[in-house]
């Protein structure tokens, strides 16, 4: 049955894309601050626990609202998506701490993504089996039963992960005397954003590319479901089969990601993935015209699955390899912000096209514009090895991440302390240091301070 009416001034087919738009705007605004606040406290594990608990409870609330008040369930979905973003901010902060080896990091990211999609496949198959076993075939009852199962799974696996697996982490940043945690978070994210834009080329262009990639990739699921339902007249069962195929082939997609990334580098791997996604989406928008194309959709779903399994571990491995240590949660908050800052744009444009009766085929094809921009911007990231070395130099104190007066003083003290430890070790081994060595030490300290101050002045000139 085709519904031509409007609810709250919009078509029912625009509801899903509007929810994605709202979530994208809220999350993009708040995630960097959330990450910075996590870095300024030792509560990273607590943030993960609390966000997981609220996420689970909101799913339960949605189950209750779904039968009686669909708009309340839609609002709950916005809150669920926001809690999930906060949860990801805490979880992703652990990822760079697993290893400093790029090859291992790529393998870890690929395995985590493979496990995620494998679990999704297992859950989907189990739900089909359970619903058929208890004789539930009506759509509303099926949704209710599946949401209850989701709630139970979240309670079990979140509970185990946050009590037995994730560990406490100390605060990675210090709060200045007299400053609140929220003020410290806002100040730090301002300095970090300014430093990335002005002083860290690889990070800047990667985050810009990511904002376009994730805008299209995140909107793809909601747009694809809307397209299959309204343009191709798929039933819920047919939609489920297409989604199942996508999830199944996302698993080998992670293996492709690991192979291509190690064979070349994460930047070229990501560009190759974007090319595959663009070609498949362009072909789908031309070929998929109306009902009766179920088998053709399944073929396209396989390629989309490979693309989805390829893009996410590659992005994470690339980002973790070019960020410095000590601000993991904040920088992961910046990453999530980049992932969602344009997340509202593709569904909004698709909704506008849908409301204006423009063909959904054009709306589907429009996703390629974001992928193309991301593909081109990735060339500006530069050489991957140089970007990794830049991050290592920040870790070693050779260059500063955010340059201000306090950072200059701290860096000088850090370098002098390191120099003092070296001289002290020489005293113990060699039996002392003569006057000439002391003079050299003082001269070296002066040169280091002059060098850092010069870096700061150069940065201020650029600003």
Automatic annotation (TrEMBL):
Record organism: Grammatophora oceanica
Protein name according to UniProt: Major facilitator superfamily (MFS) profile domain-containing protein
Cellular component GO terms held in the UniProt record: endomembrane system
TM regions (residue ranges): 15-38, 50-69, 75-96, 117-137, 143-162, 205-228, 240-258, 270-288, 294-312, 333-352, 358-382
UniProt keyword Transmembrane present: yes
Family of this protein: Belongs to the ATG22 family.
Keywords: Membrane, Transmembrane, Transmembrane helix, Transport
Biased composition, class Basic and acidic residues, residue ranges: 433-444
Compartments (UniProt record): Endomembrane system
